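Take a look at this chain, tokens included, and explain the fold to me:
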Amino acid sequence: MSLIASVDVGTLLGCQIVLTLIYAIVFCAMKIIYPYLRGAGSVAFAFFLATIANLLLVLSGSIPNFLSIVVSHCLLLSAFVLFYTGVLHFFKSPRRIRSAWALTIVASVLTIYLNLSHDHTIALTYVIAVSFFLVRGVIALEIFRQAADRIFLKIFAFLMAAYAIFALNRVYFLLVLGHPPSSQQRAVLQTVSVLLSVTFMFLIGLSFLLMLCSDLLSLVKDESERDLLCGVLNRRGIEQKLDTELKRAARLGQNLTIALIDIDHFKAINDHAGHAAGDAALRDVVSAISGRLRPHDLLGRFGGDEFLLILPHTSSSEAFTVSTRIEQSVRELSIPGEPIPLTISIGLTQAAAGEIAGPLLARADKALYTAKNAGRNCCRLLLHETAAKEDQQPIILPASHGDLLQR
């Protein structure tokens, strides 16, 4: 205990000031550079307020007690609420923070009143301890809600809960032991409190920084796999999804069908109406296709005006029904009187057991060019010879969509 008491509280507070200021600058810079990072701005402001509060605590004795006690504790409470706000924003939680701000306001008003009334020192201790316990507790509870199977978040939530419980240390002396801590005990408690505060500030900032970095990496990965013009997956993204779905289908023994979709006469649209019209046609077709898909279907831009559609756990006959809806939806985009109607050609094929992406895409491409050679604005289905033999129920396509091709 003497070793703990010998630790310089001023030095610990100085370390905490430097730590909170660094975190404030880091999170502020991240928010400026990456504005879409959720919660970074609130957390940066929280650490900035914590820096000011700790600075006031360091100056205790040389400044009025109102500043070193009341203002510093009010700023620290506000900092925790702002951190809570950042956590809610990061997790996209619908929860509101009005109750937390109401608690902060009530605690601040009571702290000001009790500080001005010099005979209410014990009541002031209760107010400060309970308010910090409640604010830290709701942060821990929110992180517990979002942790799910993420061990790191669960550890973070347990640490925050412990930090909340420690805020009640002086209440323990007053309620359980029946007397306030002695001068030596106060010195130890103050040292331990500041030491834990430095430790938790470091862990809180580091934890949120790691969460932001993880979110940033996910955003970068998503952007690298996303087509900026159409908003769907790009070729890299859709090919990765195809590999994943083929492995899943092979592992679970499920059907998987793909479709290569090509916009008819796209070059003519660009030549006659301009590239802006071509871009608009791409976006309109994507919108029409997406509106007809199921939640588990995957769409990506495979080439200039060509799209790859992945239909997991879907047979060729079911995929043909989906393609029929897609064709109809795209036809509805055409404006009467326009010289070039907006239509699509579709090549369908079903993956055989254990088949890899290369042969599957080649067969879908062959089916697509069969549809183009048939006059476009139609769908053609080409099955692998193994799948064709195993298909006990023959697929009968509508006459307007041509014959089933098998090899």
In short: Residues 1-6, 388-407 have pLDDT under 50 and may be disordered. The first strand starts at residue 256 and ends at 263. The chain is about 65% helix and 10% strand.
